[in-house]
Amino acid sequence: MTTDPICGMYVNEGITTLTSERQGRMYYFCSTNCKVQFERPERELAALRSALMVATPLTAVVAVLTYSISLPYGGYMAFVIASIVQFYSGERFYAGVADAVRNRSANMDTLIAIGSTAAWAFSTVVLFFPHAFGGGGMYYDTSTVIITLILAGMYMQRNAESRASDAVAALVALQPKVAHVVARGRVIDRPADGLKPGDIILVRAGEKVPTDSVVVDGEGEVDESMITGESVPAAKRRGDALTGGTISSASSLRARVMRVGNDTTLSQIIMIVQDAASSKVPVQELADRAASYFVPLVVAVGVLASLGWYYLGHVGAGTAVLVFVSVMIIACPCALGIATPTALLVASGTAARNGVLIKSGSSLQAGSTIDTVMLDKTGTLTAGRPQVTDIIKTSTYSPREILGYAAMAELSSEHVLGKTIVEKARASGLPLRLPKKFSYRQGSGIIATAQKGEVVAVGNRGLFEERQLAAAEKMVQSLEMEGKTCLIVGVGGRIVGIIALADAIKSGSRGAIDMLHADRKDVWMITGDNGIVANAVAKKLGIDNVVAGAKPQDKMRKVAELQRAGRKVAMIGDGVNDAPALTKADLGIAIGAGTDVAIQAGGMVLMRNDIYDAVFALRLAKSTMSKIRQNLFWAFAYNAVLIPVAAGALIPFFTVSVYDVLPALAAAAMALSSLTVVSNSLLLSGFKPRRH
Predict the structure, then answer these.
(1) Which domain holds residue 588?
(2) What residues contact 457, with CB distance under 8 A and at least 6 apart?
């Protein structure tokens, strides 16, 4: 069993024919109305508006005929007008019942249709067969008011929900329609969805980038704010990546298409936001189980209450019908069904606008419980762009030769330190050739064989034997005391030099750590770097808990150790070596500028390379779960209090005359309950914690 993404009702996916596929995922619906709302919300809103515009004036006429004017054949006039409201404006509810019967399930339309039809049918029988129930009044005003108020509530709810989905709509609107393709020396306009990888495109100043691509010619700035939330345009030059939907600010660029269709970054973001909005959180499971039994239970309560008052309370047949009608209408489980989806939709949209992608509702719930945050150092707390500061020789090899050997070994490496050494060598004009052999020693370094046969080792202490380290240890310790990272270079089995690198701490890291502490979260820094460098960085950031020299499996074991101690752990990282810990943690938060492996492993993705966004994500998660609990409490409390009222709890205090207004109040309360849930969720749209 799955749930309808619009109303939250249970749907048997093995039976229903009401389905819709969006970006490779199948969705199931309890009624055609929900399916249309999902696929074409503007059409559903227009249909609601039309139904409401017909129902409203006709309901007013029925009310006048009932309470103000006594006309010949007034009852028959009320019958005709009420029938138009019942079967034209209320047609959507009967269509929903037909869908429910076909799918062998029950939905919210079932209760509305049964309740309003009971009032209309009773009145019709009394009109045409006055003695059928021993006399009694007609309740066309009740049936028309119920339908009109429910349609009004649904219309307001749909309008509010459209605001909730503004973030997704804005992302969809970013997708350009036309691309300028450069072919055979000419620029040809083509539909953007017809681009293929390898095509060369021209992006003029002020235009949107049609799809994910790489700059092949030109320099300029690109506004990436709608994708990353970053307000400052990013500089772009040859070799830099462009994201589809971003805007070239001041100059033209030529780029090679890399990804198209559903593989683009923008499409993936839209899919993640939509999936998060339609996913479930564990706290919703109780509501789902209740909703699956709710409709038959309400019908049973309505029948029993009506018969009980008729036979045991000796009320009239008309009052008994109104008891049944009131229970049907007041108990519609709309608020229960949308309590979670609306909050998730608003939260995931708000997060996306601020550069955070939330992959699922369970990630949000996990984020709300986090009490311990574990962070990688390089690329997460620091800029991840270290610079070579020192090349120290410990042999007859010159600094230039030491750099050349190290760069040759690191030429195939993806590690940020290795890339820095290669860039330094190229900037120094050193010729580089790929090694004959290359092997990566996880957490230690690299061993490579040069073209002339020399075996070159580049890495930390773990890559070398203790006797080899003796000549370099004092110099390494001295550099590390300055907060620098040292890579030891060995050639032919002996250490020939040391390359020192320094990685600047990101400007916002200290403020983000202070905010985490203010939120009463324990903060750990775990890094593959050595203890001296790690502790120097941690001291600057105000972090007391440090684990240094950690390999990928060590990071994962530390997460497990903290979890065994009862902690709820979030791991924040950006590299391949962080992936096991990201997966093991209660919540993995991947830096969007990191590796694809890390991003896939994370439950949340920070599109900007800014730890403040992790603080934002955790605080948003806590606020979202608070809203979901408020919504569920309201939905349960509403039904717990008002179903007994509708079933006759007020009769001993106000007599049966309470049912002169109770059915209409029930319809208004049902509509108000759904609107309350949506409005409460919309408060998340303005969420943004203040920077420390």
Answers:
(1) 360-382+506-607
(2) 409, 445, 446, 447, 463, 464, 488, 489, 490, 491
Residues 202 and 95 in one domain: no
**What is 113-179 written as a DSSP string?**
HHHHHHHHHHHHHHHHSTTTTTS----HHHHHHHHHHHHHHHHHHHHHHHHHTHHHHHHHHTS-SEE
Is residue 352 domain-resident? no
Q: Are 189 and 210 in contact (CB under 8 A)?
A: no
Question: Is residue 615 a part of any domain in this protein?
Answer: no
Q: How many CB atoms lie within 10 A of CB 417?
A: 24
Q: What is the pLDDT of residues 551-594, one digit of tens each?
A: 888 888 999 999 999 999 999 987 667 778 888 899 989 887 55
On the CB side of 130, CA atoms within 13 Å amount to: 2
What average pLDDT does this structure show over 467-486? 84
Residue 541, phi then psi, degrees to nearest 5: -95, -10
Structure tokens at 312: 């045991």
Length of the chain: 692
Helix (H, G, I), strand (E, B) or coil at 223: strand
pLDDT in tens, 41-76: 778 888 889 999 999 999 999 988 887 767 778 889
Cα 67 from Cα 556, distance rounded (Å)? 73
Residue with tokens 């369970």: 362
| Whether residues 331 and 464 fall in one domain | no
Interacting residues of 287 by C-beta distance below 8 A, sequence separation 6+: 8, 336, 337, 339, 340, 632, 635, 636
Q: Give the burial class of 423: count Cβ atoms within 10 A of its Cβ; 0-12 exposed, 13-18 middle, 19 or more buried.
A: middle
- Are 213 and 289 contained in the same domain? no
Residues 121 and 23 in one domain: yes
Separation of alpha carbons 186 and 45, rounded Å: 45
Which member of 376, 529, 554, 610 is catalytic? 376
pTM: 0.68
Judging by DSSP bridges, how do beta strands 437-441 and 387-393 pair with one another? unpaired
DSSP conformation class of 529:
S
* b (16+ CB within 10 A) / e for 231-266: eebbebeeeeebbbbbbbeeeebbbebbbbeeebbb
Closest CA to 286 of 635, 20, 22, 25: 635
Cα–Cα distance list, 231 to 41, 167, 355, 515, 672 (Å)? 31, 17, 11, 22, 39
- Listed residue (361, 193, 197, 177) closest to 282, CA to CA: 361
Whether 376 is catalytic is yes
1: pLDDT strictly greater than 70? no
Q: State the total domains in the chain.
A: 4
> Residue 180: beta bridge partners?
189, 202
* Spatial CA neighbour of 645 closest among 356, 402, 331, 205: 331
Question: What are the beta bridge partners of residue 459?
Answer: 445, 488
Which CA distances in Å does 644 have to 108, 116, 327, 650, 670?
19, 19, 8, 9, 14
pLDDT confidence bin for 654, thresholds 50/70/90:
confident
